[in-house]
Design goal:
By secondary structure, the chain is of the alpha+beta class. It has helices at about 55-65, 115-125; strands at about 10, 15, 20-25, 30-35, 40-50, 70, 80-85, 90-100, 100-110, 130. It is about 15% helix and about 45% strand.
Length: about 140
């Protein structure tokens, strides 16, 4: 475990604050953030470009993962798209976030019957994402 509730969790050019009851870990470049209670997790993976990320870059990444992507307000001024898919009884929410030359793909996977409750908690974590250089 590399992140505990209440701590700032930084990875690449991004950071977030882990809420009470959540922990974070990373393996092979994939970051997993999950609540102590609940059968779901957020998975975060990053991508880098040679140029500044544009809204079209995020749209391309969304299409690569099977969605169209609709803009969403990250609350921190970062570029953001989101979309949902379904697979084998699970619903998935994708958030694609851009900052500078980096893109972040955040995925929530939860069983369909608990997806809405899981989504409410996961969105609080996603909305805490910000550029790492703004970490205090």
């Amino acid at each position: 475990m590399i992140g505990l509730a209440g701590e700032t969790y930084a990875f690449g050019p991004f950071a977030l604050t882990l809420p009470e009851g959540w922990t974070a870990d990373a393996e092979d470049g994939i970051h997993e953030i999950q609540p102590d209670q609940g059968d779901y997790a957020l998975h975060l993976s990053g991508y880098e470009k040679d140029a500044r990320v544009t809204p079209e870059d995020l749209a391309d990444l969304a299409r690569d993962h099977g969605g169209d992507g609709a803009p969403f307000d990250t609350g921190s001024g970062l570029l953001g798209l989101t979309f949902d898919t379904e697979s084998a009884g699970d619903r998935l929410r994708y958030w694609l976030i851009g900052h500078g030359q980096a893109m972040l793909l955040v995925t929530l996977t939860a069983q369909t019957e608990v997806f809405d409750a899981s989504l409410m908690r996961a969105e609080l974590v996603v909305r805490s994402l910000r550029a790492a250089e703004t970490v205090e």
